[in-house]
């Protein structure tokens, strides 16, 4: 997605050859116009999948997840990383090891919001080792629902998550694929429409 790649080039900060900081438009301050375009792009890429629900993870997945859900005209649910006092329902849970924080969290979703009949689009901001997406897929499986796709805003293709998810048979669509962060951001060469 051209607009997103331009934004990454102009505002992204390479923190190391493994980590990209994009907190001026995605992870802290959020660019609403860019999020609208991201939502449209996800909706286009998954329009054939008969999605009934978007599932993401707090907090950085919520903005792109919400915009994708708006375009697909379905609800969005976000997995919580901390137990909420009001989250007293029957919970679906999975363990996720955080790439950036190097800690393991239990994430949870109320069973009430995922049904066996749901065709779920998983959305996240970054794909590194694939742990967050796999944990979300596990929650969908626990609910007896179907993962119909995984949409990622920024995939770091030099890390193993993308291959891992595709080898498992998931349809993964990433709006920007980074080939390397060594000496600056370089993207995977793709036909751009
Ligand atoms: P994974 O579970 O695929 O290893 O990592 C994905 C999660 O880690 C994302 O939800 C994202 O929050 C975080 N993450 C991974 N790599 C980066 C990165 O380079 N920059 C930022 N800002 N977050 C990242």
UniProtKB/TrEMBL annotation:
Main location: cytoplasm
Function comment: Converts the preformed base xanthine, a product of nucleic acid breakdown, to xanthosine 5'-monophosphate (XMP), so it can be reused for RNA or DNA synthesis.
EC top class named in words: transferase
Highest taxon listed in the record's lineage: Bacteria
Identification of the protein by name: Xanthine phosphoribosyltransferase
UniProt binding sites for 5-phospho-alpha-D-ribose 1-diphosphate: 128-132
Residues covered by the Phosphoribosyltransferase domain: 33-156
Signal peptide positions on this chain: none
Sequence similarity: Belongs to the purine/pyrimidine phosphoribosyltransferase family. Xpt subfamily.
UniProt key word Cell membrane: no
NCBIfam families in alphabetical order: PRK09219.1, XPRTase
UniProt subunit comment: Homodimer.
Gene3D superfamilies, alphabetized: 3.40.50.2020
EC nos: 2.4.2.22
Protein residues bound to xanthine: 20, 27, 156
Entry's localization field: Cytoplasm
Native source organism of the sequence: Robertmurraya kyonggiensis
GO process terms (BP): purine ribonucleoside salvage; xanthine metabolic process; XMP salvage
Coiled coil (UniProt feature): none
Any one GO CC term of the record: cytoplasm
Keyword terms: Cytoplasm, Glycosyltransferase, Purine salvage, Transferase
Annotated metabolic or biological route of this protein: Purine metabolism; XMP biosynthesis via salvage pathway; XMP from xanthine: step 1/1
């Amino acid at each position: 997605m051209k607009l997103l790649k331009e934004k990454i080039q102009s505002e992204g900060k390479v923190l190391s050859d493994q980590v990209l900081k994009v907190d001026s438009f995605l992870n802290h301050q959020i660019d609403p116009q860019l999020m609208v375009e991201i939502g449209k792009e996800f909706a286009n890429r998954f329009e054939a999948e008969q999605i009934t629900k978007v599932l993401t993870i707090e907090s950085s997945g919520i903005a792109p997840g919400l915009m994708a859900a708006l375009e697909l005209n379905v609800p969005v649910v976000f997995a919580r990383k901390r137990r909420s006092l009001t989250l007293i329902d029957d919970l679906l849970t999975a363990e996720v090891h955080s790439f950036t924080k190097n800690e393991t969290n239990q994430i949870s979703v109320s069973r009430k919001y995922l049904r066996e009949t749901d065709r779920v689009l998983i959305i996240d901001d970054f794909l590194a080792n694939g742990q967050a997406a796999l944990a979300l897929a596990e929650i969908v499986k626990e609910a007896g629902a179907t993962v119909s796709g995984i949409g990622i805003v920024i995939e770091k293709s030099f890390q193993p998550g993308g291959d891992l998810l595709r080898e498992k048979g998931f349809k993964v669509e990433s709006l920007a694929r980074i080939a390397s962060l060594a000496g600056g951001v370089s993207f995977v060469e793709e036909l751009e429409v």
